[in-house]
Amino acid sequence: QVQLQESGPGLVKPSETLSLTCTVSGASITSNYWSWIRQPPGKGLEWIGYIYYSGSTKYNPSLKSRVTISVDTSKNQFSLKLSSVTAADTAVYYCASLMTTVSDWAFDIWGQGTMVTVSS
Amino acid sequence: SYVLTQPPSVSVAPGQTARITCGGNNIGGKSVHWYQQKPGQAPVLVVYDDSDRPSGIPERFSGSNSGNTATLTISRVEAGDEADYYCQVWDTIGDHPVFGGGTKLTVL
User: Fold this and answer.
1) How far apart are CA B78 and CA A25, in angstroms?
2) The pairing of beta strand A18-25 with beta strand A3-7
3) pLDDT on residue A103
4) Helix (H, G, I), strand (E, B) or coil at A29
5) A86-108 pLDDT per residue, tens
6) What is the pLDDT of residues B24-33, one digit of tens each?
7) How confident is the model at residue B85 (pLDDT cuts 50, 70, 90)?
8) Chain A residues touching B51 at Cβ < 8 A
9) Could you give the CA distance from residue B91 to residue B53 in angstroms, rounded to a whole number?
10) 3-class SS of residue A20
């Protein structure tokens, strides 16, 4: 049974860098594409980016200049860094796995999510 | 970027059928995936590739997709189905996922 668990600080100061890690259990991180998604309070889902174990990445164009997603195969983890944060980056951050479907990809397994607040 | 439009809310009485729509330009030419998100919980995939269900999802959840509208249908609605529902497609031009704005299903 594949499980994902986010970890990282729940409070980040404005202008600093938000850093989160997702630990994958029950599957090898080399088996899939992995993604970060966020949800501001009371709002909808926003895709942040995804990564393959090889290090190949794709980012949301609206966040691309501030986002870095990386993978650590030795720890079966992947990570998110979002720089120069503002209050608008306050959200629940989810990590998720991308499942290959007949036509494209869907998010089949999600972490429980971690709330990150940007505030001084 | 590709845009998906969902109604903000849908209400239905227990035992009735709920239909949640997801509009997009020629969305019938894409695969649509649907997620259920209950308060305080992570989203759960309930339908993928327009009409397939992951293991463990009740048959009451079904989907269709044609023209400019995809529809998630929930039959014999139960109180436990009250949640936000999101549609998602893959933007093949940008090579990334796109979510709809979400629909809050209220069971009366």
Assistant:
1) 33
2) antiparallel
3) 82
4) helix
5) 999 999 999 999 998 888 899 99
6) 999 999 999 9
7) very high
8) none
9) 22
10) strand
Q: Calculate how close chain B gets to A59, using CA atoms only, in Å.
A: 8
Q: Answer yes or no: do A103 and B44 touch at CB < 8 A.
A: no
Letter for the amino acid at A64?
K
Amino acid, single-letter form, for residue B34: W
Nearest of A101, A96, A118, A74 to residue B37 by alpha carbon: A96
Joined together, the tokens standing for residue B54 give: 């992951």
Tokens of A79: 């990570």
In 3-state terms chain B splits into helix, strand, coil percentages (rounded to 5) of: 5, 50, 45
Indicate if the pLDDT at residue A31 is higher than 90.
Answer: no
Assess A99–B contact: CB distance below 8 Å, yes or no: yes
Give the whole-angstrom CA distance, residue B45 versus residue B55: 10
Chain B contact residues (CB < 8 Å to A): 1, 30-31, 33, 35, 41-45, 48-49, 52, 54, 86, 88-90, 92, 94-102
